[in-house]
Amino acid sequence: MSLSLGVMASGRGSNFLAVQKEIESGSLDAHVSLLISDRSSAPALELAKDRGVPAQHIPYNAKDRAAFETQAADAFAEAGCELILLAGFMRILTPVFITRFDNRILNIHPSLLPSFKGLHPQQQALEAGVKFSGCTVHLVNAELDAGPIVTQAVVPVFKGDDEESLAARILEQEHRIYPEAIRILAAALAVP
Ligand code: GRF
Protein backbone atom coordinates (compact mmCIF):
# COMPACT_ATOMS: atom_id res chain seq x y z
CA MET A 1 0.00 0.00 0.00
CA SER A 2 1.19 3.51 -0.84
CA LEU A 3 3.22 4.98 2.03
CA SER A 4 1.92 8.27 3.43
CA LEU A 5 4.70 10.83 3.75
CA GLY A 6 4.91 14.13 5.63
CA VAL A 7 7.55 16.67 4.61
CA MET A 8 9.08 19.54 6.58
CA ALA A 9 10.94 22.17 4.56
CA SER A 10 12.22 25.68 5.25
CA GLY A 11 13.45 26.76 1.83
CA ARG A 12 14.00 25.88 -1.81
CA GLY A 13 12.40 22.42 -1.69
CA SER A 14 14.49 20.64 -4.32
CA ASN A 15 14.67 17.45 -2.25
CA PHE A 16 10.91 17.47 -1.80
CA LEU A 17 10.57 17.91 -5.55
CA ALA A 18 12.95 15.03 -6.28
CA VAL A 19 10.85 12.73 -4.06
CA GLN A 20 7.59 14.01 -5.54
CA LYS A 21 8.84 13.39 -9.09
CA GLU A 22 9.73 9.77 -8.22
CA ILE A 23 6.22 9.37 -6.85
CA GLU A 24 4.65 10.91 -9.96
CA SER A 25 6.72 8.71 -12.26
CA GLY A 26 5.45 5.64 -10.41
CA SER A 27 8.86 4.50 -9.20
CA LEU A 28 8.14 5.25 -5.54
CA ASP A 29 5.00 3.74 -4.02
CA ALA A 30 4.16 6.66 -1.74
CA HIS A 31 2.32 9.96 -1.60
CA VAL A 32 3.02 13.21 0.22
CA SER A 33 -0.01 13.79 2.45
CA LEU A 34 1.21 17.10 3.86
CA LEU A 35 4.15 19.50 3.55
CA ILE A 36 4.75 21.88 6.44
CA SER A 37 7.04 24.89 6.38
CA ASP A 38 8.13 27.08 9.26
CA ARG A 39 8.67 29.95 6.75
CA SER A 40 5.73 31.49 4.92
CA SER A 41 8.01 32.56 2.04
CA ALA A 42 9.56 29.12 1.49
CA PRO A 43 9.51 28.21 -2.23
CA ALA A 44 8.79 24.63 -1.11
CA LEU A 45 5.24 25.71 -0.19
CA GLU A 46 4.56 26.95 -3.74
CA LEU A 47 6.20 23.88 -5.29
CA ALA A 48 3.89 21.66 -3.26
CA LYS A 49 0.76 23.63 -4.13
CA ASP A 50 1.69 23.63 -7.84
CA ARG A 51 1.82 19.84 -7.76
CA GLY A 52 -1.41 19.42 -5.82
CA VAL A 53 0.29 18.46 -2.56
CA PRO A 54 -1.42 19.82 0.59
CA ALA A 55 0.91 22.40 2.14
CA GLN A 56 0.71 24.50 5.24
CA HIS A 57 2.76 27.22 6.92
CA ILE A 58 3.04 26.92 10.69
CA PRO A 59 4.70 29.96 12.28
CA TYR A 60 7.82 29.18 14.31
CA ASN A 61 8.56 30.98 17.55
CA ALA A 62 12.02 30.16 18.94
CA LYS A 63 10.78 31.02 22.44
CA ASP A 64 8.05 28.39 22.23
CA ARG A 65 9.36 25.55 20.09
CA ALA A 66 6.95 23.10 21.68
CA ALA A 67 3.96 24.99 20.26
CA PHE A 68 5.25 24.64 16.68
CA GLU A 69 6.26 21.01 17.16
CA THR A 70 2.95 19.99 18.73
CA GLN A 71 0.97 21.72 15.99
CA ALA A 72 3.11 20.12 13.27
CA ALA A 73 2.95 16.64 14.81
CA ASP A 74 -0.84 16.94 15.24
CA ALA A 75 -1.23 18.03 11.60
CA PHE A 76 0.92 15.13 10.31
CA ALA A 77 -0.96 12.65 12.52
CA GLU A 78 -4.31 13.96 11.31
CA ALA A 79 -3.12 13.64 7.69
CA GLY A 80 -2.19 9.99 8.41
CA CYS A 81 1.57 10.42 7.76
CA GLU A 82 3.59 7.29 8.43
CA LEU A 83 7.04 8.65 7.66
CA ILE A 84 8.30 12.24 8.04
CA LEU A 85 10.99 13.64 5.73
CA LEU A 86 13.06 16.63 6.78
CA ALA A 87 13.99 18.22 3.48
CA GLY A 88 15.99 21.36 4.10
CA PHE A 89 14.19 21.95 7.40
CA MET A 90 16.43 24.42 9.19
CA ARG A 91 15.23 23.97 12.79
CA ILE A 92 16.40 21.54 15.40
CA LEU A 93 13.57 19.29 16.55
CA THR A 94 13.15 18.42 20.22
CA PRO A 95 11.72 15.23 21.79
CA VAL A 96 8.28 16.93 21.75
CA PHE A 97 8.14 16.13 18.02
CA ILE A 98 10.62 13.26 17.75
CA THR A 99 8.85 11.01 20.25
CA ARG A 100 5.61 11.34 18.26
CA PHE A 101 7.30 9.68 15.23
CA ASP A 102 9.90 7.47 16.86
CA ASN A 103 12.25 6.00 14.21
CA ARG A 104 9.98 7.40 11.50
CA ILE A 105 11.73 10.68 10.76
CA LEU A 106 14.38 10.91 8.03
CA ASN A 107 16.79 13.77 7.42
CA ILE A 108 19.14 14.46 4.54
CA HIS A 109 22.46 16.12 5.29
CA PRO A 110 25.06 17.23 2.73
CA SER A 111 28.13 15.51 4.20
CA LEU A 112 29.34 12.01 4.89
CA LEU A 113 28.16 11.80 8.49
CA PRO A 114 29.52 11.50 11.12
CA SER A 115 31.85 14.07 9.52
CA PHE A 116 30.78 17.72 9.29
CA LYS A 117 27.59 17.93 11.32
CA GLY A 118 25.59 21.14 11.64
CA LEU A 119 25.70 24.24 9.45
CA HIS A 120 27.76 24.72 6.25
CA PRO A 121 28.97 21.13 5.97
CA GLN A 122 30.26 21.70 2.42
CA GLN A 123 32.44 24.58 3.65
CA GLN A 124 33.58 22.45 6.58
CA ALA A 125 34.63 19.73 4.11
CA LEU A 126 36.60 22.24 2.00
CA GLU A 127 38.35 23.64 5.06
CA ALA A 128 39.25 20.13 6.23
CA GLY A 129 40.85 19.45 2.84
CA VAL A 130 39.08 16.12 2.28
CA LYS A 131 39.19 14.55 -1.20
CA PHE A 132 35.70 13.09 -0.93
CA SER A 133 32.49 14.29 0.62
CA GLY A 134 28.86 13.44 -0.06
CA CYS A 135 25.47 13.18 1.54
CA THR A 136 23.71 11.07 4.13
CA VAL A 137 20.11 10.09 4.82
CA HIS A 138 19.67 9.16 8.46
CA LEU A 139 16.98 8.58 11.04
CA VAL A 140 16.46 11.53 13.37
CA ASN A 141 17.04 11.21 17.09
CA ALA A 142 17.50 13.81 19.82
CA GLU A 143 21.18 14.35 18.92
CA LEU A 144 21.91 16.65 15.95
CA ASP A 145 22.81 14.79 12.71
CA ALA A 146 23.66 11.68 14.72
CA GLY A 147 20.85 9.14 14.15
CA PRO A 148 21.30 5.76 12.44
CA ILE A 149 22.46 6.08 8.82
CA VAL A 150 20.16 4.64 6.14
CA THR A 151 22.22 5.39 3.03
CA GLN A 152 25.02 7.61 1.74
CA ALA A 153 26.55 8.77 -1.54
CA VAL A 154 30.14 9.83 -2.09
CA VAL A 155 31.26 12.67 -4.39
CA PRO A 156 34.77 13.86 -5.20
CA VAL A 157 36.04 17.24 -4.00
CA PHE A 158 38.04 19.00 -6.73
CA LYS A 159 40.89 21.47 -6.24
CA GLY A 160 39.04 24.51 -7.58
CA ASP A 161 35.82 23.82 -5.66
CA ASP A 162 34.09 26.46 -3.61
CA GLU A 163 31.11 25.96 -1.31
CA GLU A 164 28.67 26.49 -4.16
CA SER A 165 30.24 24.09 -6.67
CA LEU A 166 30.63 21.35 -4.06
CA ALA A 167 27.06 21.87 -2.80
CA ALA A 168 25.72 21.52 -6.37
CA ARG A 169 27.63 18.26 -6.95
CA ILE A 170 26.36 16.88 -3.65
CA LEU A 171 22.77 18.04 -4.27
CA GLU A 172 22.57 15.96 -7.44
CA GLN A 173 23.28 12.88 -5.32
CA GLU A 174 20.85 13.99 -2.59
CA HIS A 175 18.06 13.91 -5.15
CA ARG A 176 19.01 10.33 -6.05
CA ILE A 177 19.45 8.89 -2.55
CA TYR A 178 16.49 10.46 -0.72
CA PRO A 179 13.92 8.42 -2.70
CA GLU A 180 16.22 5.39 -2.35
CA ALA A 181 16.27 5.80 1.46
CA ILE A 182 12.49 6.00 1.54
CA ARG A 183 12.31 2.69 -0.36
CA ILE A 184 14.74 1.10 2.10
CA LEU A 185 12.76 2.31 5.10
CA ALA A 186 9.40 1.43 3.57
CA ALA A 187 10.63 -2.14 3.09
CA ALA A 188 11.84 -2.25 6.70
CA LEU A 189 8.53 -0.88 8.00
CA ALA A 190 6.61 -3.49 6.00
CA VAL A 191 8.36 -6.33 7.84
CA PRO A 192 6.03 -7.50 10.63
C1 GRF B 1 20.06 20.29 1.18
O1 GRF B 1 21.41 20.42 0.85
C2 GRF B 1 19.89 19.39 2.37
O2 GRF B 1 20.82 18.36 2.42
C3 GRF B 1 20.11 20.34 3.53
O3 GRF B 1 19.51 21.55 3.12
C4 GRF B 1 19.48 21.61 1.70
C5 GRF B 1 18.04 21.78 1.31
O4 GRF B 1 17.84 21.91 -0.05
N1 GRF B 1 19.60 19.78 4.75
P1 GRF B 1 16.38 21.84 -0.67
O5 GRF B 1 15.50 22.84 0.10
O6 GRF B 1 15.87 20.44 -0.55
O7 GRF B 1 16.55 22.28 -2.10
3D structure, described in words:
There is one protein chain. This protein folds into two domains: 1-102, Rossmann fold; 108-192, Rossmann fold. 38% of the residues are buried. A seven-stranded mixed β-sheet has the order 3-2-1-4-5-6-7, with helices on both faces. The chain has 192 residues and is an alpha/beta fold. The longest helix has 28 residues, at 163-190. Strand 4, helix 4 (95-98) and strand 5 form a beta-alpha-beta unit. It has helices at residues 14-24, 43-50, 65-78, 95-98, 121-128, 163-190, and strands at 3-9, 30-37, 55-57, 83-86, 105-109, 132-139, 149-156. Helices cover 38% and strands 22% of the residues. The protein is globular and about 50 Å long. Helix 1 (14-24) crosses helix 6 (163-190). The protein is built from six helices and seven strands. 5-O-phosphono-beta-D-ribofuranosylamine binds at residues 9, 11-15, 87-88, 108-110, 171, 174. 5-O-phosphono-beta-D-ribofuranosylamine (GRF) binds next to helix 1, strand 5 and helix 6.
Strand and helix map with partners:
Elements lengths: L2 E7 L4 H11 L5 E8 L5 H8 L4 E3 L7 H14 L4 E4 L8 H4 L6 E5 L11 H8 L3 E8 L9 E8 L6 H28 L2
Parallel strand pairs: 1-2, 1-4, 2-3, 4-5
Antiparallel strand pairs: 5-6, 6-7
Helix pairs in contact: 1-6
5-O-phosphono-beta-D-ribofuranosylamine binds next to helix 1, strand 5 and helix 6.
